[in-house]
């Protein structure tokens, strides 16, 4: 398609709200996944560190 203005591009022939809305939802979901993954990683590292400390204390 050829658009003569940026407004026509963003309108996407009347389907702009669905197109840009789906991009928005996808970005929100990807950001949420990244944040949750980071949180799970930090929790796992913390758990491994705690277990390591407990093993050191048990071996003394």
Automatic annotation (TrEMBL):
Where is this chain's protein located in or outside the cell? Cell inner membrane
GO CC terms of this entry: plasma membrane
Which InterPro entries does the UniProt record give?
Answer: Haem_export_protD_CcmD, Heme_exporter_D
Which keywords does this Swiss-Prot/TrEMBL entry list?
Cell inner membrane, Cell membrane, Cytochrome c-type biogenesis, Membrane, Transmembrane, Transmembrane helix, Transport
Q: How does it sit in the membrane?
A: Single-pass membrane protein
Q: Is Transmembrane helix given among the entry's keywords?
A: yes
Q: Does this entry carry the keyword Ribonucleoprotein? A: no
- Matches recorded under Pfam families: CcmD (PF04995)
Q: Any one Gene Ontology biological process term? A: cytochrome complex assembly
Where do the TM regions start and end?
Answer: 18-37
Please describe what this protein does.
Answer: Required for the export of heme to the periplasm for the biogenesis of c-type cytochromes.
- What's this protein's family per the entry? Belongs to the CcmD/CycX/HelD family.
Q: What name does this protein carry?
A: Heme exporter protein D
Identify the species of origin. Answer: Pollutimonas thiosulfatoxidans
